[in-house]
Amino acid sequence: MDCIFCKIANHEITSNIVFENENVIAFEDLNPVAKVHVLVVPKKHIESVMHVEEEDLNYIFEIHKAIKEVAKIKGISESGF
Description:
- The chain is of the alpha+beta class and 81 residues long.
- It is built from 2 helices and 3 strands.
- The protein has a 3-stranded antiparallel β-sheet with strand order 1-2-3.
């Protein structure tokens, strides 16, 4: 597969990882447009939001849990993001 996010999730491409578990990976954007710009993606390839199936719902939940954790790690959980 030629998906850059899958390659990052599989550690085929080096990135500055902020958070990772068995379901998701969060990493800093190479070209940030904000002071804190972290991408959180599932480790399962899902083409787009339009391709999320019922069996993928746990990944959506895990993404939201990871966002909360990344906000804490980056020190923005209180100030907003």
